[in-house]
Design brief:
It contains one helix and six strands; from the N terminus they run αββββββ. It is an alpha+beta fold and 252 residues long. It folds into two domains: 1-121; 173-252, Rod shape-determining protein MreC, domain 1 (Thrombin, subunit H). It has a six-stranded antiparallel beta barrel with strand order 1-2-5-4-3-6. Strand 3 and strand 4 (216-226) form a beta hairpin. The longest helix has 149 residues, at 2-150. The termini are far apart. The relative contact order is 0.07.
Protein backbone atom coordinates (compact mmCIF):
# COMPACT_ATOMS: atom_id res chain seq x y z
CA UNK A 1 0.00 0.00 0.00
CA UNK A 2 2.80 2.34 0.88
CA UNK A 3 4.56 1.47 -2.30
CA UNK A 4 1.51 2.30 -4.32
CA UNK A 5 1.18 5.66 -2.61
CA UNK A 6 4.82 6.37 -3.16
CA UNK A 7 4.59 5.37 -6.78
CA UNK A 8 1.53 7.59 -7.20
CA UNK A 9 3.29 10.45 -5.45
CA UNK A 10 6.34 10.09 -7.65
CA UNK A 11 4.09 10.06 -10.67
CA UNK A 12 2.36 13.23 -9.52
CA UNK A 13 5.68 14.92 -8.80
CA UNK A 14 6.96 14.00 -12.25
CA UNK A 15 3.75 15.26 -13.84
CA UNK A 16 3.96 18.46 -11.79
CA UNK A 17 7.54 18.93 -12.87
CA UNK A 18 6.54 18.40 -16.48
CA UNK A 19 3.68 20.86 -16.17
CA UNK A 20 5.94 23.39 -14.45
CA UNK A 21 8.46 23.07 -17.26
CA UNK A 22 5.76 23.50 -19.89
CA UNK A 23 4.38 26.48 -17.95
CA UNK A 24 7.80 28.05 -17.84
CA UNK A 25 8.23 27.47 -21.56
CA UNK A 26 4.82 29.02 -22.29
CA UNK A 27 5.63 31.92 -19.98
CA UNK A 28 8.94 32.53 -21.75
CA UNK A 29 7.17 32.31 -25.11
CA UNK A 30 4.51 34.77 -23.93
CA UNK A 31 7.18 37.21 -22.76
CA UNK A 32 8.96 36.89 -26.09
CA UNK A 33 5.68 37.51 -27.93
CA UNK A 34 4.95 40.45 -25.63
CA UNK A 35 8.33 41.98 -26.42
CA UNK A 36 7.74 41.53 -30.15
CA UNK A 37 4.24 42.98 -29.88
CA UNK A 38 5.54 45.96 -27.91
CA UNK A 39 8.21 46.53 -30.54
CA UNK A 40 5.58 46.28 -33.29
CA UNK A 41 3.28 48.65 -31.43
CA UNK A 42 6.13 51.14 -30.98
CA UNK A 43 6.98 50.87 -34.67
CA UNK A 44 3.35 51.45 -35.64
CA UNK A 45 3.13 54.42 -33.28
CA UNK A 46 6.28 55.90 -34.85
CA UNK A 47 4.81 55.40 -38.31
CA UNK A 48 1.54 56.96 -37.14
CA UNK A 49 3.43 59.99 -35.84
CA UNK A 50 5.22 60.36 -39.17
CA UNK A 51 1.94 60.00 -41.04
CA UNK A 52 0.35 62.62 -38.80
CA UNK A 53 3.20 65.03 -39.61
CA UNK A 54 2.91 64.27 -43.32
CA UNK A 55 -0.87 64.75 -43.15
CA UNK A 56 -0.41 68.15 -41.53
CA UNK A 57 2.13 69.12 -44.19
CA UNK A 58 -0.20 67.87 -46.93
CA UNK A 59 -3.08 69.91 -45.51
CA UNK A 60 -0.87 73.00 -45.31
CA UNK A 61 0.28 72.50 -48.91
CA UNK A 62 -3.32 71.94 -49.97
CA UNK A 63 -4.34 75.25 -48.42
CA UNK A 64 -1.37 76.94 -50.09
CA UNK A 65 -2.25 75.46 -53.48
CA UNK A 66 -5.89 76.39 -53.02
CA UNK A 67 -4.84 79.97 -52.38
CA UNK A 68 -2.72 79.92 -55.52
CA UNK A 69 -5.60 78.46 -57.51
CA UNK A 70 -7.90 81.22 -56.29
CA UNK A 71 -5.26 83.82 -57.17
CA UNK A 72 -4.76 82.37 -60.67
CA UNK A 73 -8.54 82.24 -61.11
CA UNK A 74 -8.66 85.99 -60.49
CA UNK A 75 -5.79 86.57 -62.93
CA UNK A 76 -7.51 84.37 -65.53
CA UNK A 77 -10.78 86.28 -65.13
CA UNK A 78 -8.95 89.59 -65.59
CA UNK A 79 -7.11 88.17 -68.61
CA UNK A 80 -10.39 87.00 -70.17
CA UNK A 81 -11.86 90.48 -69.69
CA UNK A 82 -8.76 92.00 -71.32
CA UNK A 83 -9.07 89.61 -74.28
CA UNK A 84 -12.76 90.48 -74.64
CA UNK A 85 -11.92 94.20 -74.66
CA UNK A 86 -9.17 93.63 -77.23
CA UNK A 87 -11.52 91.62 -79.44
CA UNK A 88 -14.11 94.39 -79.24
CA UNK A 89 -11.46 96.98 -80.09
CA UNK A 90 -10.21 94.81 -82.96
CA UNK A 91 -13.72 94.42 -84.37
CA UNK A 92 -14.24 98.17 -84.15
CA UNK A 93 -10.89 98.81 -85.85
CA UNK A 94 -11.70 96.30 -88.60
CA UNK A 95 -15.06 97.99 -89.15
CA UNK A 96 -13.40 101.40 -89.36
CA UNK A 97 -10.77 99.97 -91.72
CA UNK A 98 -13.48 98.47 -93.94
CA UNK A 99 -15.31 101.80 -94.04
CA UNK A 100 -12.07 103.63 -94.83
CA UNK A 101 -11.28 101.08 -97.55
CA UNK A 102 -14.74 101.54 -99.06
CA UNK A 103 -14.32 105.33 -98.92
CA UNK A 104 -10.89 104.99 -100.53
CA UNK A 105 -12.32 102.84 -103.35
CA UNK A 106 -15.13 105.34 -103.90
CA UNK A 107 -12.74 108.31 -103.85
CA UNK A 108 -10.33 106.52 -106.19
CA UNK A 109 -13.17 105.72 -108.57
CA UNK A 110 -14.29 109.35 -108.54
CA UNK A 111 -10.68 110.46 -109.07
CA UNK A 112 -10.33 108.08 -112.03
CA UNK A 113 -13.57 109.41 -113.50
CA UNK A 114 -12.41 113.00 -113.02
CA UNK A 115 -8.99 112.15 -114.47
CA UNK A 116 -10.54 110.42 -117.48
CA UNK A 117 -12.83 113.41 -118.03
CA UNK A 118 -9.85 115.75 -117.73
CA UNK A 119 -7.84 113.80 -120.29
CA UNK A 120 -10.84 113.73 -122.59
CA UNK A 121 -10.98 117.53 -122.34
CA UNK A 122 -7.24 117.70 -123.00
CA UNK A 123 -7.62 115.55 -126.11
CA UNK A 124 -10.49 117.75 -127.27
CA UNK A 125 -8.31 120.84 -126.70
CA UNK A 126 -5.51 119.20 -128.64
CA UNK A 127 -7.91 118.47 -131.49
CA UNK A 128 -9.14 122.08 -131.43
CA UNK A 129 -5.54 123.28 -131.42
CA UNK A 130 -4.80 121.10 -134.45
CA UNK A 131 -7.90 122.49 -136.21
CA UNK A 132 -6.76 126.03 -135.40
CA UNK A 133 -3.34 125.33 -136.86
CA UNK A 134 -4.86 123.90 -140.00
CA UNK A 135 -7.07 127.00 -140.33
CA UNK A 136 -4.04 129.26 -139.85
CA UNK A 137 -2.15 127.32 -142.51
CA UNK A 138 -5.15 127.58 -144.84
CA UNK A 139 -5.33 131.31 -144.11
CA UNK A 140 -1.65 131.77 -144.95
CA UNK A 141 -2.06 129.77 -148.16
CA UNK A 142 -5.07 131.89 -149.11
CA UNK A 143 -3.16 135.13 -148.43
CA UNK A 144 -0.26 133.90 -150.53
CA UNK A 145 -2.60 133.00 -153.40
CA UNK A 146 -4.27 136.45 -153.24
CA UNK A 147 -0.89 138.18 -153.19
CA UNK A 148 0.16 136.18 -156.24
CA UNK A 149 -3.06 137.17 -158.04
CA UNK A 150 -2.53 140.86 -157.25
CA UNK A 151 0.95 140.72 -158.73
CA UNK A 152 4.22 142.16 -157.50
CA UNK A 153 2.85 145.69 -157.33
CA UNK A 154 -0.23 144.77 -155.33
CA UNK A 155 -0.32 145.30 -151.68
CA UNK A 156 -0.25 142.32 -149.47
CA UNK A 157 -3.66 141.39 -148.22
CA UNK A 158 -4.13 140.39 -144.64
CA UNK A 159 -7.38 138.63 -143.90
CA UNK A 160 -8.66 139.42 -140.47
CA UNK A 161 -10.70 136.70 -138.81
CA UNK A 162 -14.34 137.48 -138.16
CA UNK A 163 -13.97 136.36 -134.56
CA UNK A 164 -10.73 137.59 -132.98
CA UNK A 165 -8.57 135.00 -131.31
CA UNK A 166 -7.93 135.17 -127.61
CA UNK A 167 -5.00 133.76 -125.73
CA UNK A 168 -6.00 130.48 -124.09
CA UNK A 169 -4.15 127.91 -122.08
CA UNK A 170 -2.73 125.26 -124.41
CA UNK A 171 -1.39 121.77 -123.60
CA UNK A 172 2.18 120.78 -124.40
CA UNK A 173 2.98 120.24 -128.05
CA UNK A 174 1.81 116.73 -128.94
CA UNK A 175 0.72 114.91 -132.06
CA UNK A 176 -2.98 114.01 -132.29
CA UNK A 177 -3.86 111.03 -134.47
CA UNK A 178 -7.14 109.90 -135.88
CA UNK A 179 -6.47 106.15 -135.70
CA UNK A 180 -6.76 104.34 -132.38
CA UNK A 181 -3.39 102.67 -131.79
CA UNK A 182 -3.26 99.99 -129.10
CA UNK A 183 -0.30 98.14 -127.63
CA UNK A 184 1.51 97.09 -124.46
CA UNK A 185 4.38 98.38 -122.35
CA UNK A 186 7.43 96.19 -123.05
CA UNK A 187 10.06 97.85 -120.86
CA UNK A 188 10.13 100.32 -117.97
CA UNK A 189 13.35 102.27 -117.50
CA UNK A 190 14.40 105.05 -115.17
CA UNK A 191 13.54 107.84 -117.60
CA UNK A 192 11.90 106.15 -120.61
CA UNK A 193 9.12 103.62 -121.09
CA UNK A 194 9.05 101.42 -124.22
CA UNK A 195 5.90 100.21 -125.99
CA UNK A 196 5.23 97.43 -128.52
CA UNK A 197 4.33 99.83 -131.38
CA UNK A 198 6.66 101.62 -133.79
CA UNK A 199 6.72 103.65 -136.97
CA UNK A 200 5.43 100.63 -138.92
CA UNK A 201 2.26 100.91 -136.83
CA UNK A 202 1.91 104.66 -137.39
CA UNK A 203 3.66 105.90 -134.24
CA UNK A 204 5.27 109.32 -134.55
CA UNK A 205 7.33 111.55 -132.30
CA UNK A 206 5.31 113.64 -129.79
CA UNK A 207 2.38 111.22 -130.07
CA UNK A 208 0.55 110.65 -126.78
CA UNK A 209 -0.40 107.21 -125.43
CA UNK A 210 -2.63 106.70 -122.40
CA UNK A 211 -1.67 103.84 -120.05
CA UNK A 212 -4.31 101.69 -118.34
CA UNK A 213 -4.23 98.67 -116.03
CA UNK A 214 -7.68 97.18 -116.30
CA UNK A 215 -10.05 100.14 -115.93
CA UNK A 216 -7.54 102.15 -113.89
CA UNK A 217 -5.71 105.05 -115.54
CA UNK A 218 -1.97 104.90 -114.75
CA UNK A 219 -0.28 107.72 -116.67
CA UNK A 220 0.38 108.90 -120.21
CA UNK A 221 3.45 108.56 -122.42
CA UNK A 222 4.71 111.28 -124.78
CA UNK A 223 6.75 109.57 -127.51
CA UNK A 224 10.32 110.86 -127.91
CA UNK A 225 12.05 108.00 -129.77
CA UNK A 226 10.55 105.92 -132.58
CA UNK A 227 11.89 102.74 -134.23
CA UNK A 228 10.25 100.52 -136.81
CA UNK A 229 8.74 98.04 -134.33
CA UNK A 230 8.89 99.90 -131.02
CA UNK A 231 8.89 103.35 -129.50
CA UNK A 232 9.79 105.00 -126.21
CA UNK A 233 8.72 108.11 -124.38
CA UNK A 234 8.58 110.04 -121.12
CA UNK A 235 5.83 109.89 -118.51
CA UNK A 236 3.30 112.59 -117.69
CA UNK A 237 0.37 112.84 -115.27
CA UNK A 238 1.59 109.80 -113.34
CA UNK A 239 -1.05 108.28 -111.05
CA UNK A 240 0.84 105.02 -110.46
CA UNK A 241 4.09 103.41 -111.62
CA UNK A 242 3.65 101.71 -115.02
CA UNK A 243 4.48 98.02 -115.39
CA UNK A 244 5.43 95.72 -118.24
CA UNK A 245 2.20 94.45 -119.79
CA UNK A 246 0.11 97.56 -119.06
CA UNK A 247 -2.27 98.51 -121.90
CA UNK A 248 -1.52 101.64 -123.98
CA UNK A 249 -3.83 103.45 -126.40
CA UNK A 250 -3.95 106.77 -128.20
CA UNK A 251 -7.57 107.31 -127.23
CA UNK A 252 -9.27 107.47 -123.86
Amino acid sequence: MFDEQKSLNDSLVAENTSLQRRFNEKTALMKELEVKLNDRIQLLEDEKSKLDVELKNARRLSLDYQGRVNSWAGVLTSFEKTIANLEQSLNLTQEQLSNAHADNIRDRKELNEITASLYEKIVQMQALEADRRRLLEAKLDLEEQINQLLGPEGEGVVIEPVTPEHDVARPSSVTVVGADLKGLITEVGKSLVSISLGSDDGVKKDMVFHVFRGDEFICRIVITNVDASKAAGVLELVQDSPRVGDFVTTRL
